[in-house]
Amino acid sequence: HELRWRRYFQxxxxxxxxxxxMSLDTNDKELQDLVRGGISVAFRGRVWSLLCxxxxxxxxxxxxxxxxxxxxxxxxxxxxxxxxxxxxxxxGSGDGGAAHVQEx
Length: 104
Prior knowledge:
5 helices, single chain
């Protein structure tokens, strides 16, 4: 049975151009047959993580983390922000946060 799982994953790699799959298609009849026959111990962790979409979720989290780092960089160095020019002319900029009030 382990050999069937190994062949299944080899086919998935081949279909993906050598890239491992991000998830498994639960409508795939071959996958359904393999699961009904039992998930080989050698593949159990990989199969469950793919069925749950773990790699896809990790990719999403990594993208969110990258965006957070970009925003953080603009907070540390406002000149790195694409909108920094408009902020530098805003009331309260450059004076430690004090508001500008015009006297009449």
